[in-house]
């Protein structure tokens, strides 16, 4: 299996993400490496779970979109988790086999990457930086074609302690606004079943009335 993301896949991922940047290919490459290491295809449903270690202020929006697109683990399917550790790493769990792989970008590569001019311009806040023509695309290709051993450290887990979230489809109708609300979000107050918004209106109204 090739380790290189095809041009069509790259274009589709960039269309999904909305811009051409260097965080997205980092996520694509990390996610693809994890799928290959586990020998699994992109998740159609919740058969995979991905846990990302970058926080939103650390490339995470771009990195996470690359991870989502390539692994099929998405916010919408609730099988993407962000547990910020400030690291360029992600763990992909194969839920039915209880195995997982943590894919972590190597320090020597990251030190180089963070000093590529278009990347350095971001974190050193060079607002007037303009990349050379084709420079960003060349850097993207460098991420996508670099040999795996130069990019990643892989850690395998044989019994990964992942518990699938329990689905809650129970539901009630709020006594005050009449909107349907999922059961675990309802509150009971004075014999009424309430949504969180109506519950807080009643509670704060009581507090107001209690004032002199
Ligand atoms: Zn981006
Ligand atoms: Zn309500």
User: How is the main sheet built?
Assistant: 5 strands, mixed
The separation of the N and C termini measures: 74 Å
Helix count equals 8
Radius of gyration: 22 Å
The H-and-E topology, N to C, reads as HHEHEEEHHHHEEEEEH
Determine the strand fraction and express it as a percent band.
15-25%
Word description of this protein:
By secondary structure, the protein is α+β, with helices and mostly antiparallel strands. The protein has two domains: 7-157, 60s Ribosomal Protein L30, Chain: A (2-Layer Sandwich), CATH 3.30.1330; 171-210, no CATH class. 41% of the residues lie in helices and 18% in strands. It has a five-stranded mixed sheet. Strands 6-7 form a two-stranded antiparallel sheet. Helix 2 (23-38) packs across helix 3 (56-71). The protein is elongated. The termini are far apart. The structure holds zinc ion (2 copies). The site of one zinc ion has 8 residues, from helix 8.
